């Protein structure tokens, strides 16, 4: 119940509040301020790195990475984990397309943007899909010995991709934040739903030998008898 409240309902409410402000006011003052901050700090090297990251984390790279990880999970006979990862990324991508059609928010103007990309701006597709990938990867391996490293990787990867979209000027910061919130609610909701139907999802993909031992609670010593 706590996971449902914190990881699903709370992000949904925050997303709804953010989307309402975008619909009513068209954006936020801090959107422009943050984009100008990034624009003032661009260098040729950083711009090239951000463009490479856009390719790796985009429609030409992320699906391939997701399928390769899912194939590895399938080879390890962790089919539920593989299906969860694919559904998390595919579902987030589909939800992003539907949201963009619904909100019709234009992208930042060409004076700030390094690139020109088609489509609408809210929420960020890169941020949403890659956050879904990072969160799903962390949840799939949570009980394994690689659980914590993958949690750190997932968070850093999502933040890096989101920051690169603002750096390139192709998305407002509120687009990126909305993508993070929507993916958090979607992936955790999917995890809770699939975990109820297939309990194996809550175990380590590689089996018992890769399962992280539970935290040991300190032994409760009975009070000394007087």
Helix-residue proportion: 55-70%
Structural category is: mainly alpha
Mean pLDDT over the full residue set: 85
Series of H and E elements? HHHHHHHH
Q: Give me the number of helical elements.
A: 8
Q: The biggest beta sheet, please?
A: none
The coarse overall form would be: globular
Q: Output the radius of gyration.
A: 20 Å
Strand content: under 5%
**Uncertain spans, ≥5 residues at pLDDT below 50?**
none
Number of strands: 0
Termini separation comes to 43 Å
Task: Explain what this protein looks like in three dimensions.
The protein is an all-alpha fold. It contains eight helices and no strands. Helix 5 packs antiparallel against helix 8. 38% of the residues are buried.
Short overview:
The protein has 226 residues and is mainly α. 66% of the residues lie in helices and 0% in strands.
Highlighted features:
226 residues; mainly alpha; 0% strand
SSE map:
Blueprint: H1 2-25, H2 29-39, H3 44-56, H4 62-75, H5 79-103, H6 125-140, H7 147-168, H8 173-197
């Amino acid at each position: 119940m706590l996971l449902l409240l914190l990881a699903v309902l709370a992000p949904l409410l925050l997303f709804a509040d953010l989307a309402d402000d975008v619909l009513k006011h068209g954006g936020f003052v801090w959107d422009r301020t943050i984009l100008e901050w990034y624009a003032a700090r661009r260098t040729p090297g950083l711009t090239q790195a951000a463009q490479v990251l856009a390719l790796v984390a985009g429609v030409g790279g992320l699906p391939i990475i997701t399928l390769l990880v899912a194939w590895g999970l399938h080879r390890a006979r962790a089919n539920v984990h593989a299906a969860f990862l694919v559904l998390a990324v595919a579902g987030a991508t589909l939800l992003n397309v539907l949201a963009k059609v619904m909100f019709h928010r234009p992208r930042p103007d060409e004076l700030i943007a390094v690139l020109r990309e088609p489509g609408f701006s809210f929420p960020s597709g890169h941020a949403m899909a890659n956050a879904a990938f990072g969160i799903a990867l962390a949840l799939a391996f949570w009980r394994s010995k690689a659980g914590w490293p993958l949690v750190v990787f997932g968070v850093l990867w999502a933040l890096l991709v989101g920051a690169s979209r603002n750096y390139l000027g192709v998305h407002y910061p509120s687009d990126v934040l909305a993508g993070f919130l929507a993916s958090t609610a979607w992936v955790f909701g999917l995890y809770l739903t699939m975990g109820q139907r297939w309990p194996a999802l809550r175990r380590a993909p590689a089996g018992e030998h890769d399962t992280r031992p539970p935290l040991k609670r300190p032994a409760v010593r009975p009070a000394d008898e007087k």
